Amino acid sequence: MDGRESRVVVATTAFGMGIDKPDVVNLVHFGLPSCMSSYYQAVGRAGRDSRDATATLFYGSQDEVRLGQIHKDAPRQDLVTDNICQVMQYVKTESCKRCALLLHFGEPLQRDGAITLSCGNCSNCNRPDLMDLENHTENAKMLLQTIQATGYGSGKCTLILRASTNKTLNKERDPGLETYGSGKHKKAEYWKELHNKLQPEHLKVTNPGSLYIKYEITAAGCDAMSGKKLVLLEPILI
Q1: Which structural domain range is residue 55 located in?
Q2: Which of 24, 25, 126, 216 has the fewest C-beta atoms lying within 10 Å of its C-beta?
């Protein structure tokens, strides 16, 4: 420590929106925002004095359900669903975060007067290059095929891939699936993390906010299953 004091403000999102300080350099957002507009305004609290600033978002897999429950009485449930979908697509995108945020509002990212697709500062722009990505194609195929055959989420699909005899599985169908037991070579945590990383490019939620989430395999996911496209992801360190 260099002896200097650091000022920290902790607030709800609603109260935080009213904070108008020019010298915020670190902003931490805990939990998924309810919509892109809310998040855009929140991160706008930082960097107002033109100094470098950092915005960090922490969220968990249950945040989708939590948001749906919070807004379950909203008159336009279709808008609630769209907002949650847009937020999930943003947090899981593998493209430039800043570019994705601006494009959501119809504002292309520009540098030196020219449109660019990379800010060079966000977590995605600073991730390892393609040579450092790992090929998860075969495992992704197995997981997507299991989802396609059962409609299950990550938990039950992991049980099938690891040949579990858990009583929550369909004893008449699941042990007979082609992928049953094909994922024994990986830990359960791996399959759950792979499930997360396949979203939203290969796998998307069709009913965000619902207690029992349903998934749909995207065109990219179908290409991966048919062998037309590789699934290259950041290393899953499990």
Answers
A1: 13-92
A2: 126
